[in-house]
Every structure is written in structure tokens, then in C-alpha cells.
From TrEMBL:
One of its GO terms (biological process) is aminoglycoside antibiotic catabolic process. It comes from Actinopolymorpha singaporensis. The keyword Manganese does not apply. Keywords: Transferase. The lineage of its organism: Bacteria, Bacillati, Actinomycetota, Actinomycetes, Propionibacteriales. It holds the Pfam family SCP2_2. GO terms for molecular function: aminoglycoside N-acetyltransferase activity. The keyword Cytoplasm does not apply. Coiled coil: none annotated. Residues 3-146 form the N-acetyltransferase domain. This is Predicted acetyltransferase. InterPro entries: Acetyltransferase_Eis, Acyl_CoA_acyltransferase, Eis_dom, GNAT_dom, SCP2_sterol-bd_dom_sf.
Length: 398
């Protein structure tokens, strides 16, 4: 039967939910209309049908991602799901190709996602491009933390906090490569805590909002065990606010046993508790990025102001053919341009350019692995200078 792809309609909501549950859940959760209407708008959900039946779906969040101190418009692909009996015949690939075209039309020059299945996305031009540094620690390790200096108050979040929380998220994320910039519909519930299911707290000092903690609990394995805490957001403008929020977690010891939280190596926590107490959480997520519009992506990010470089590239992109061919990459005075033409000396696939673009991959390593070819030492050094920076990471999951 012929496969057709279209955007979702209002009467598809329940069927799309059911398909997601079939693909991802051990026990299907009931459809929640209010929750569904608070998620992606219908024109950002794509579905594949065979006759009347929906056999595949995905959604694209309207987001941004910070690279070089600038907000790059990003489409966040999530919830890619195909009915079990329709798998292995190109349904997901067809949906993904359509999503790439739609993102290009909307000016979302890059796309990122959290892969369950690297192969599907790697084949379609995404490549591993950053970490989601989720760590687990025994809650007891937080109990000896010092009290914060100065006067920081902590209280539950309210709806009225949302604008200040969004500002706080932008402020702490913009200098962190790979961090997200939330779009308008990236749920209030994620930032305030889902009432009745999660807890949300803000830190305040001198009448100003200085931190946010959103956390959920998971049941103990048996009725004598501890519950565990998963931190969904931990934002703080200074150490005092971070300590004040960590105390909210520590105060749950010993009823809660462990806490899982996203913490990059450069954050305060490893030094505060001692690095040996933090263990990578077992899911080991990374994120993958695709350059949807390579020229647009190069122009959108920031670069170190003292880097000047020119590299003649040849890009291969069989899925988004507008990116294919020889291009000259020029970077000067903090701005980058990618223009068609030139000698096409350095040959690489679009996914490899994505992993360089975010600062995740080293050009020397890619060349050693034969994934970048034709580059001489000057080309590799130039690519290294252009994309160098701290390792990209993300604090949000979607
Ligand atoms: C992953 C999923 C969406 C793939 O859907 P699909 O329609 O079968 O995918 P396609 O037929 O377009 O596959 C394209 C390529 O992806 C790769 N791929 C697809 N499913 C795979 C799997 N389960 N394991 C490894 N590789 C896989 C294959 O290389 C495949 O090409 P090939 O068949 O020529 O070898 C589907 O299996 C699914 O819904 N799984 C459960 C939910 C899930 O994991 N979603 C992804 C979330 S990030």
C-alpha cells in the first residue's frame, strides 16, 4: 500500500499518542488531552499513513542551540515511532526526509536529537555532536555541603515565575556550547514542574530569581527501599544559589537514596562532593546534530574574533542535495561564510561537518579515521581553529 506523509490534524491526536506508546512504553499511558495540546503544535508533527492507518510519526520542536555565543535556529526531532509491523521498509526514513525539507523551509538551519538508534540518523546525515552529561550520586554525598553564603531563599515555583525562569535559562545557557534555547512552546511544565508529578523550586536573592530546580521521583523497587530523584532542571547564576537548591535535594536523605542530574565537568558539583562520588548514569545519552542548511548554519553561529581561515571543502549530502558540492569556508572577525565553488580540496560528509561544527570532533581525528580526506596539515589546523572551544553539552532532554 502506498505510503503518504502529511502534517497532523486535530483528530489524529489519540492515534499519534497510541503509536508513541506502542513504540516507547512498557505499559501504555492513557491519552491526556491537556498534556497533548501543551506539546508541539500540529503542523510540527509529521505522520505517515498507509490507507487510513497511521504507521509512523515524528515531531520537531522549535528550539535554538548556542554555538559561539550565538543562538542557532534548531529543529529538535523527537518521538520518531513506526508501528512494529511496518518497520524495516523505510517509513522512518521517509518521515525524516520530509522533516529535513520542512526544517529548511522554516529556517531551522540545524537539527539535533537524542538517538535511540544511531544507524537510522547517521544514514540520514546526523552525527554525534555533543554530550548529555547525566551523573548519578548517592544523596548522602550532598549532606555535608556548606550552607550558602549570603541570603538565598528557596520556595516552590508559581506560574508567575515563568518569564523570569525563561530569562534565567537563556542567561545561564548562552555561553555554554550546545545548550538549548527554548522555543515558545517548550513547555511551561518542564520549567515549573508538572503539578502533582514533579517538584519545582526557585532560588531568590535580593528580590531577583537566581536559580531553578525541577525534579521528579521514581518509586523504590520494593516497599522498604528508597525512592530515587531525577533532576530535570538545575540552573543557578552563582554558587550560593546552587548550594541552596542542592540542599533541597540533600534534605531528602535518607528517604531518597540516589539522585541523577546533568552536570558538566566544569560545574561546581564535582569539586564540591569529590569527583569519585559522581558516576555516569547508565543511559549514556549523547545527542546528534545535522546541518539542515550548511551555509545557513555556518553563518548563524559565532566564532572567536581572532580566527581568520579559508578552507576549500567538498560536501557530500545525498539526502539534502542542496548542501552537496564544492564550497569555500571563510571565517574572519567572528563571522563565518560558506559559499558554493572553490577547489573542493577537503572532502567530507554532511554528518562529519556537523560534528566539527558543534566543536565535538577533532578534524585531525576524523582525518586519521579516513572520514575527512584530501586535507593537508594547514587545512586541518584551520578547521581546528575555526571550531575549537569547550566540549558541547546539553542540559535539557526532549
Ligand atoms: C527506529 C524506528 C523508528 C525505525 O523505523 P523504520 O521505519 O523501521 O526505519 P527505516 O526502515 O526507515 O530504517 C532505515 C535504516 O535505519 C536503520 N535501522 C532502522 N531500525 C533499526 C534498528 N531497530 N536497529 C538498528 N538499525 C535500524 C537501518 O540501517 C535501516 O536501513 P536498512 O533497513 O536498509 O538496513 C522503529 O524501529 C521504531 O519505531 N522503534 C521504536 C522507537 C524508537 O526507537 N525510535 C527512535 C527514537 S530516537
Amino acid at each position: 500500500m502506498a505510503l503518504q506523509v502529511r502534517t497532523a490534524r486535530d483528530d489524529d491526536r489519540q492515534a499519534l499518542h497510541d503509536l508513541s506508546q506502542l513504540a516507547f512504553a512498557a505499559r501504555p499511558a492513557p491519552y491526556d488531552d491537556a498534556n497533548d495540546r501543551g506539546a508541539n503544535p500540529l503542523d510540527r508533527r509529521l505522520l505517515a499513513t498507509e490507507g487510513e492507518r497511521i504507521v509512523g510519526r515524528l515531531a520537531v520542536w522549535e528550539l535554538g542551540q548556542w554555538f559561539g555565543g550565538r543562538r542557532v535556529p534548531m529543529g529538535g526531532v523527537s518521538g520518531v515511532a513506526v508501528a512494529p509491523d511496518a518497520r524495516g521498509r523505510g517509513v522512518a526514513s521517509t518521515l525524516v526526509h520530509e522533516a529535513i525539507r520542512a526544517m529548511r523551509d522554516r529556517g531551522e538551519v540545524v537539527s539535533s536529537l537524542y538517538p535511540m538508534n544511531h544507524t537510522l540518523y547517521r544514514r540520514n546525515g546526523w552525527e554525534v555532536a555533543g554530550s548529555y552529561p547525566e551523573q548519578r550520586l548517592d544523596l548522602r554525598a550532598l549532606t555535608p555541603l556548606p550552607r550558602p553564603d549570603g541570603q538565598v531563599d528557596v520556595r516552590p515555583t508559581t506560574e508567575a515565575d515563568l518569564p523570569a525562569i525563561r530569562e534565567l535559562h537563556e542567561a545561564v545557557s548562552r555561553e555554554e556550547p550546545g545548550n538549548l534555547s527554548h522555543g515558545p512552546e517548550f513547555g511551561a511544565r518542564r520549567l515549573l514542574g508538572h503539578p502533582g508529578i514533579q517538584e519545582g523550586y526557585v532560588a531568590e536573592a535580593n528580590g531577583r530569581l537566581t536559580g531553578l530546580l525541577v525534579a521528579s521521583r521514581t518509586d523504590p523497587a520494593d516497599d522498604r527501599g528508597f525512592y530515587t530523584i531525577t533532576v530535570l532542571q538545575l540552573l543557578a547564576v552563582d554558587l550560593a544559589s546552587e548550594l541552596a537548591l542542592l540542599r533541597v535535594l540533600a534534605a531528602q536523605y535518607p528517604v531518597a537514596g540516589t539522585v541523577t542530574l546533568v552536570t558538566p565537568p566544569q560545574s561546581a558539583l564535582p569539586m564540591l562532593v569529590g569527583e569519585r562520588d559522581l558516576r555516569p548514569a547508565d543511559r549514556g545519552w549523547c545527542w546528534m546534530t545535522r546541518l539542515v542548511d550548511a551555509a545557513g548554519a555556518i553563518a548563524a553561529r559565532g566564532y572567536a574574533p581572532d580566527v581568520t581561515a579559508e578552507v576549500h571543502l567538498h560536501l557530500d549530502d545525498p539526502v539534502a542535495r542542496w548542501n552537496t558540492g564544492p564550497h569555500v569556508l571563510r571565517v574572519k572577525d567572528g563571522a563565518g561564510h560558506l559559499e558554493p565553488g572553490g577547489r573542493g580540496d577537503v572532502r567530507l560528509g554532511i554528518g562529519r561537518l556537523a560534528s566539527l561544527y558543534t566543536g565535538w570532533a577533532s578534524p585531525h581525528r576524523l582525518a586519521r579515521l579516513g572520514l575527512v580526506t584530501g586535507a593537508d596539515a594547514a587545512d586541518l589546523a584551520a578547521l581546528d581553529r575555526v571550531f575549537a572551544g569547550r566540549l558541547p553539552w546539553s542540559r535539557d532532554f526532549f
